[in-house]
Amino acid sequence: MDDAGKADENGSCRILVADEDETVRRSLCQALSDAGHLTVSASNRSELMDLIDGQAFDLVTLDIPFGGDDGLALAHSLRMHHNIPVIIITAQADPMDRVAGLEAGADDYIAKPFHAREVEIRVRSVLERYGRLPHPHELAGELSFDHTVFNLMRRILRKSDNQEIHLTETEFKLLALFLDNPGRILSRDEIWQKLRGRNRNPLDRTLDGHIAHLREKMEADQSNEGLIRSVRGVGYVFVGDVRPAVRVPSDPDEKS
Questions:
Q1: Residues 175, 156 share a domain
Q2: Other beta carbons less than 10 A from residue 71's beta carbon
Q3: What pLDDT is attached to residue 231?
Q4: What range does the domain containing 146 cover?
Q5: What average pLDDT values come out for the chain (256 residues) when binned by 10 residues?
Q6: Which residue from 80, 121, 126, 253 has the highest number of Cβ atoms inside 10 Å of its Cβ?
Q7: Residue 50 domain-assigned?
Q8: 151 and 121 within one domain
Q9: For residues 114 and 97, what is the distance between their CA atoms, to the nearest angstrom?
Q10: Is the domain of 120 the same as that of 20?
Q11: Is cis: bond before 113, omega within 30 of 0?
């Protein structure tokens, strides 16, 4: 049986949260709902399997052990027989437990206590890997972050005071890459490969110059790194909260 789901037209995915702890279930459901997903929860194996057999889900978060059952065997079954991505979220934080979980077929492994933002990012990463989450460019012509709107069609930034900032081709590609990967550290080599389609010369500092110019356009306060932060010896990470922009008409009678 293949219960593979698909995000709806708004980009919402159906996620099944399986955990014995009611507090954890509520916390996970809240975090994933805030991220725009539809959530259903199960407190034991019987509930989980009834839901799996009756509905289509895009992903399952699974605690181990779960209801006295072998959570690893359950994760393996979900992946092999139902083709559903699985993220294990558990208090078993030993490195060998993580290895066992991944070997059982889990797509990711998160140790408790967890941060809601980390769960959101990891869930999105797995959903994108399986093609179940539309690319942000498919969901909206505009993305918002830190009181700024990024218009993908016009390739401009619009600040909260409606000031428009035009981007060069390279700056546009850089920002689009960062907004597609919020919270994920991107190496200089990976960024350069995405921009130019070729390997980067380790002595070439051109990329750092492009990012410096992009920062100048994005950040009013240049005294700190702001949203695009350097990771020493590795690359850069975008730390803003990225969401599809909601356009509010300035004229009450204006129609979309």
A1: yes
A2: 23
A3: 92
A4: 139-244
A5: 43 87 94 92 92 90 76 83 88 85 89 89 86 56 85 83 87 89 91 80 85 86 73 91 64 41
A6: 126
A7: yes
A8: no
A9: 16
A10: yes
A11: yes
